[in-house]
User: Fold this.
Amino acid sequence: MTDRSRLRCNALADRVMSAEDAASFIAPGDHLGMSGFTGSGHPKAVPAALVRRVTDAAERGERFAVSVWTGSSTAPELDGALAAVDGIDLRMPYQSDPVTRAKINAGLLDYVDVHLSHVARMVSDGFFGHLDAALIEVAGIAADGALIPSSSVGNNVTWIDVADRVILEVNSWQPGELEGMHDIYHGTALPGHRTPIQILGPSDRIGVPYLRCPLEKIIAIVPTHDADYSLPSRPADGDSELIAGHVVDFLTHEVRRGRLPATLPPLQSGVGNITNAVLAGLDGGPFPPLTAYTEVIQDGMLQLLRSGAMSVASATGFSLSEDGFAELHADIAGYHDRIILRPQEISNHPEVIRRLGCLAMNGMLEADIYGNVNSTHIMGSSMQNGIGGSGDFARNAYLAMFLSPSTARNGAISCIVPMASHVDHTEHDVHVIVTEQGIADLRGLPPRRRAQQIIDHCAHPDYRPALQDYLDRATVTGPGRHTPHLLDEALSWHVRYLREGTMRPH
Amino acid sequence: MTDRSRLRCNALADRVMSAEDAASFIAPGDHLGMSGFTGSGHPKAVPAALVRRVTDAAERGERFAVSVWTGSSTAPELDGALAAVDGIDLRMPYQSDPVTRAKINAGLLDYVDVHLSHVARMVSDGFFGHLDAALIEVAGIAADGALIPSSSVGNNVTWIDVADRVILEVNSWQPGELEGMHDIYHGTALPGHRTPIQILGPSDRIGVPYLRCPLEKIIAIVPTHDADYSLPSRPADGDSELIAGHVVDFLTHEVRRGRLPATLPPLQSGVGNITNAVLAGLDGGPFPPLTAYTEVIQDGMLQLLRSGAMSVASATGFSLSEDGFAELHADIAGYHDRIILRPQEISNHPEVIRRLGCLAMNGMLEADIYGNVNSTHIMGSSMQNGIGGSGDFARNAYLAMFLSPSTARNGAISCIVPMASHVDHTEHDVHVIVTEQGIADLRGLPPRRRAQQIIDHCAHPDYRPALQDYLDRATVTGPGRHTPHLLDEALSWHVRYLREGTMRPH
Assistant:
């Protein structure tokens, strides 16, 4: 059962057990810190066994639910399966699972949406209470007990550090060549003892390749051989390619104006179709060699590394399609020294992002005419996924760009609205907005001029006249002309959508 | 005319001239970078001469206006006088002047509200265009041409660095003993060349006590002897003392729970009555020796330094009453080694704030039931002052607290509302809200539980039932139960205030 090449520590041989036995260490009400970041490196077997415990308890008429803390999103077999049986009390800091989302928005599951760089320190500082157990996937255990991290690092350093007990899944599906790709920094400390994070470039290493855990804390080791969760690969659509084109043009222009070095600062890029298209656009662009200091390696970034357009990428995990994982595994030796996986506290650390001057590109749900961005809440109330690392990067980036098609739901929703129904990134933190219509460069502009840029360049033509009308009337009759709003109309577009299924004016 | 003890550089003797002559170097349309932070260290004579040029031009039927970039707020004789004659095209990054505010909200003056730590880098990076001239108050000029900074540092390093030409006011009202109190860091650089800011504690020095400017850039030197702008000193009111009491109790509790060290992390505190009351409360509290890593030294902080309850304070300027300035000047030798004035890029640097784990205490205009905070916009449209450094500190602080009385305008405005009419600090960045009613500790809580905390502990009893009713109905009938809102009612409290002069329910 046990792959000796993956479990090389004799002192731990007696902890090997089935997922069912390991799951028996988990009690109702526990706070569990799990590995996993955007579908990579999450535990696969013990959560399934935990689901069986939850359903068994339910059959006995007992409630069995736990708090699930992770790196970010996981996979259907973890988030989805546990949420489906109402096995989650509280979830943080990020999710993107449809079942979990439905439970959150039905009010059946508490969700705390946290900046990804803040999680580790808030837990270490005691803000979320006690962590009962850590459930961590690793790629292997070295002879001396050092843990070879899996395909994501996430908050694993912190979970292992603060949990009472640690359950490990050793996943032999993960390539053994992951060993050495990580840079695990154990130097974060409580206030009063913190020192500078000495990263001066994306390729800098400040830690060690292994996670460390006192052996006596490890109560169970479960061998697995299960694939990471892969996202379906969708070809870039027309809007994504238009957005990508605008971004590449803009960056080219900024280099020409001398406001960006020709070797662009490190890229940060969220996940999804649009950012993959932007990355593809950069592959053919005039900028190599690029670097990335980002959260996840997605297909587009792997392609840049493969083509040589990118020299090195720092992240905390992968978010790949099935083809992407196959490509990574097929040539992992070639990627070994060009991808560095760090704890998300470091991959998303404001100190490093500010120092390196990242170019941040993130998606959004909607922006208002003044440049306030909603990344999380559909119609102000329902959670989509979460803020993730977008705030970590946007606040401290050299350039903070937000990208979205100008409409959604076949044009029934305008992604440019009079007032955002929720704000995750304030006007102070949004430099550039890009839709398939064009680009609004908001830097240095006061609110009404920001509004005019966004309406003229980003709004869909179908909605542009109504937005202009709102701005014009608000400027004349609103209670103040700095950021003119008509408060009894400001959210009327959302109200109309909720009532009529469209934001389109009559 | 010239005080030789203040102007010790012979090579610059020929640049001494009247304020009128110096102002003649300023042209319509110029971008001017001025010294000044919350009423300390701003130029006093040349702006007045500039006002005369503006009014002379107006009499000739010509428009004369400039862009004014500063550290933060200045004084009536600068902001107020220039705004009154419509001499300002664009103002950034912060102001608190009633005349300027009125012009901004009448749509007659463009204002860009920027995180104070971001200004220097955005200007250096070229986001605001070219800086024509810097107008900087200094306390003196050393024999070798080194500039002895005045009572604030603000963005002076950057203004001198990027401006085409520099006009200095040498103010002999400023104590000569300011020499040596500053820590001027010239090490910030463009992305790709930045290194860690090596500050590990509030008293650390990483720079030199002087501003440096190539002598050939200095085109005018104007001797002055004028007081800084002092705020009227108001005795603490009952609400402020109640808020202060809640804060001190909370911090005491956190120390007892082991979530804060007994020697509190460095304090950051905004200006105003409430924070002065909190600082007074800490003076009698169980915590000495305190430190501060903050933006301004206000009366309350000076008192802590005087009493010995605070060992050292790092800031970028002063915000003092007339008595406060008198006290500072009377015992400046005693404060000399315990106050460090830094560029605001450093005093407010996210890297340092996160490392030190500051306790951030800032005022607010309103918070909504989910903990989104509005610091800037009255009824969503009119600018009050600006975000200042509150975002720099709140985002990266160990604990981010926002303080306000629960009502304003004799109870006609509830500072706790269903939805904030503008968001400067998102739910992700707000840990604790305090009103005279009590304290809401939002850490680790999902939205509906945050709302219950805020309604129960912070809202005024007159508004509590209506807020509870909103939350309850939104939870049942809203479009989603994660952050339940009724979008057609969410801003109705503000609309009612604008129509009827009160938010009180009928």
Remarks:
- Residues 238-256 of chain A form the longest helix (19 residues).
- The CA atoms of residues 235 and 273 of chain A lie 8 Å apart.
- The radius of gyration of chain A is 23 Å.
